[in-house]
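input
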Amino acid sequence: MGFWDYVGSYREKLLFDAYQHASAVLQCVVVATVAGVAIGVATYRREWAAGLATTTTSALLTVPSLAMIGLLIPVVGLGVAPTVIALTLYGLLPVVRNAIVGLRGVDPALVDAAKGIGMSRARRLLRVELPLAWPPILTGVRVATQLLMGIAAIAAYASGPGLGNEIFRGIASLGSANALNQVLAGTLGIVVLALLFDAGYVLLGRLTIPRGIRG
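output
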């Protein structure tokens, strides 16, 4: 069976796996973004705290994904749980680092001006600092998403959702008629999803970042 014949025959299953893959990545990116920005806000004013946050999230990223999921299985079991935890942890570094860089890059004169007109610290953060730091934060989210797209395929090792199941099935049945088709379908599906997500971030940037800030 040719590749396109395989895709046509298993179209519904491939689409379902692609939906699960995209859904898992999107949900984990959202959680990693919220947590990463919160960590950035809590640490960017202190050099030691920012360094600790960056070093810790960098260390998490050095743990091989297969090992991370393997270590989580005895704790939370198989399926969605180890996938979500692992992907969220891996997605933290780009967001945390870019949040710190973005917040530190805000012009102090603008913050002082906001303080001068009576804005509280919380309002200055929400109305001035975070909006101005949004472009680098969005870049961090974009990098995290591309990173998690590939790592999510390893979730199949723990019976997780997504296109990784197609790849693992193909590898497990190498030599059979459709083994290569399965690996290729899963791999190309992940690439297409990554490109679609990236295009979505480009559009989001155009809608949320003023032209003057975009440069």
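quick obs: The radius of gyration is 20 Å.
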